[in-house]
Design goal:
The protein is mainly alpha-helical. It is built from five helices and no strands. One of its GO terms (cellular component) is cytosol.
């Protein structure tokens, strides 16, 4: 099915975001694991899997619309410690939320309701799971202190 060029371009822009988020979560999960923060590493690895699923959905939709998926991720921002990792991951999620909202509006305007529905599911996941969890963790670090939070992320 020949898709709308504007929608395909928007989906490709989102794909770059999702690939970057996936890659950033991947390196962050490995860093956290190496530092012995296995609970945080497991959760960030879960987020990487979610981002991979988002990228897969976008690739499938772009192909269905007879577009060519642009497989170049957006720029990564790698954290230097756990709070920095969470802050950088949250920043990526906030960019994704903004871009998802814009793409959803475009899909509505261009009457591509199937793409809109796919993106709405991603928006729910991004806002209610990824960004919310990261905001919670940053709040917990402020509440209990970094050392206590770090200790809670270890498992022996």
């Amino acid at each position: 099915m020949k898709g709308n060029k504007k929608v395909i371009a928007a989906l490709n822009a989102l794909l770059a975001d999702e690939l970057a988020a996936r890659d950033q979560y991947f390196i962050h999960s490995r860093m956290l694991s190496e530092w012995g923060l296995s609970r945080a590493a497991e959760r960030i690895a879960h987020e990487m899997e979610d981002e991979t699923a988002h990228a897969d959905a976008l690739i499938r939709r772009i192909l269905f619309l007879e577009g060519v998926p642009a497989m170049t991720p957006a720029k990564l921002t790698i954290g230097k410690d756990l709070p920095d990792i969470f802050s950088k991951d949250l920043a990526v999620e906030m960019v994704v939320v903004k871009n998802l909202r814009e793409a959803i509006a475009l899909c509505e305007t261009e009457q591509d309701y199937v793409s809109r529905e796919i993106l709405e599911k991603m928006l729910d996941d991004t806002e209610e799971d990824h960004a919310h969890w990261l905001e919670q963790q940053l709040g917990l670090i402020k509440l209990v202190g970094l050392q206590n939070y770090l200790q809670s992320q270890m498992s022996c």
